[in-house]
Amino acid sequence: MAELLFLHPVGLDRQSVAFLGLLPVRAVTFPGHGERRRARPGLTLADMADEIAGHHTGRFDVVGASLGGMVAMHLALAHPGLVRSLVLACTTPRGDAQVMEARAEATEARGAAGMLDDTMTRWFTPEALERDPDAPPLAYARERLLAMDPGALADTWRAIARHDVLDRLGEIGVPVTCIAGRRDRSTPLPVMQDLAARLPGARLVEMDAPHMAFLERPREFAAAVREHLAWVRGTTEGAHS
Fold first, then answer.
1. Catalytic amino acids?
2. CA-CA 20 to 30 A from 212: which of 55, 124, 126, 131?
3. pLDDT tens digit string along 180-202?
4. Average pLDDT over residues 47-74
5. AB hydrolase-1 domain spans which residues (predicted)?
6. Cα-only R_g, the chain
7. Is 42 within a domain?
C-alpha cells in the first residue's frame, strides 16, 4: 500500500499541504525553508531528493508542486523503488538558468520584503489578491516568504537554475498526472503540455488556476489528486489481473 507524499513549492514548507485536506499524507520541508536552517552552498535538487530517500522507506504516490515537482522528478529517477506514481503540478523539467540567477541576485539585493509583491503576483491571480488578500492560503504564503532567509531563498533559485532532467523523462515509467494552470505565469500551459507529452503514460489535467493552483483552488486540486490515485489503483490492478 503506497502512502501519499507531498513536496512543497519554493518559499513554503510542509504545512502547506494542510490546505488540501488530503489524509493521510506525509510531507517534508526542504532545507532552508520553514524552521530548517540554510543548507550548505551548492545544494542541488538531486541532493534534496536523496535526503528524502534517506529518511523514508516504502512506496509513495508523490505530489509535487512547482519546486516540489522538480524534486519529485529527481526522486523518481534516482530512487525509482520509492515512487509508485507522480502528480507533477505547475512545474518544469528544466530550470531557466538566466531567469533563476537574476531572481537569486534580486533576492539577495532586495531581501524577502522587497521581493514579496513580485512573487505574490506571479503566484496568484489578480482576482484572488484583490478579493481577499488576507485569505488563509494567501496569508500563509506571504508569512512564509517574509520569514525565509533571503540567502536560503537565493540558494534555492540557483538550485533550480541547475535543474535539468529533460533528456531523462523517458526513464520515468510510473503513472504520472501533470496538473497545469491555464493562468500560470511561471510554467505556462505549453510547458506542462510538453512535459506530459515527454513522459510515458502521462495524463494532463488543466485547471483555471495560477501557479499556486493548490493554494488558490485547493478543493479542485485535491479532487484531481484523488482522481489520480483512483487511476493509479486501476492501472495497478489491471496489470496484476
1. 66, 184, 211
2. 55
3. 999 999 999 999 999 999 999 89
4. 96
5. 5-224
6. 17
7. yes
Domain assignment present for residue 197? The answer is yes
Exposure string of 28-48, with b = 16+ CB inside 10 Å and e = fewer, is bbbbbbbeeebbeeebbbbeb
Average pLDDT on 71-88 reads: 97
Q: Is residue 136 part of a domain?
A: no
Pair 30, 86: CB distance under 8 Å: no
Examine the pLDDT at 236 and tell me if it is beyond 80: no
**Cα(90)–Cα(210) distance, rounded to whole angstroms?**
9
The pTM is what?
A: 0.96
Nearest-angstrom CA–CA distance, 139 and 30: 20
What's the domain range around 18?
Answer: 3-95+165-239
CATH code, domain carrying 206:
3.40.50.1820
